[in-house]
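Lay summary. Proteins are chains of building blocks that fold into shapes, and those shapes determine what they do. In this project we predict the shape from the chain. Here is one chain we studied, written as its sequence of building blocks.
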Amino acid sequence: MIGINGAGKTTILNAIMNLTPLNSGEILIDGRQLTKESYQTIAFIPDTIAMLSQMTIKQAVNFMKNFYLTWNQKRADELLEFFQLAKEEKIANLSKGNTAEINLLLGLALDVDYLLMDEPFSGIDIFSREQITNIFTSHLIEDRGVLITTHEINDIEHLIDKVILIDDGIVVKDFKAEDMREQKQKSIIDVMREVYIK
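And here is the predicted shape, written in a compact code that computers can read:
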């Protein structure tokens, strides 16, 4: 889901998670309205980490393990190894890139069908972006639906199936990225220019 700043991307994710009220419309998953049980199948990874900065990585992981029934410790351990993170490190002492990786780990280690990610690449260096991008081609994401908002299109264009462009909370265009490349020889950035630059 792509849009210029203030287009409503985060608001839509918050609405899906029932964190903000709906003025109109409805939210369906697999054609059904969301219920309390539906939220056991969804993980929301916000653009900033929700853990206390004085926590260690181990404490943050234990908090999630104790709070969420869907926590998968094996996957959490795999992600810690994948990102090469030290459990005793305090969140406050981490770089922006490592903080983004921990934030991602806390969401990805949940056994859910759907992942909502709000700007996971925001403000981090190119090497951290590359490492996070590698997650999307690994078994850690396999068989899960991912809805992501991002401005860093170049890093993940080859991974995107469907693009939804929004402006002021309204879908202005949606298309399959591969069809657009093959049939019209246009990248996602090309389509964005057509929609947002007038």
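What the prediction tells us: The CA atoms of residues 41 and 59 lie 24 Å apart.
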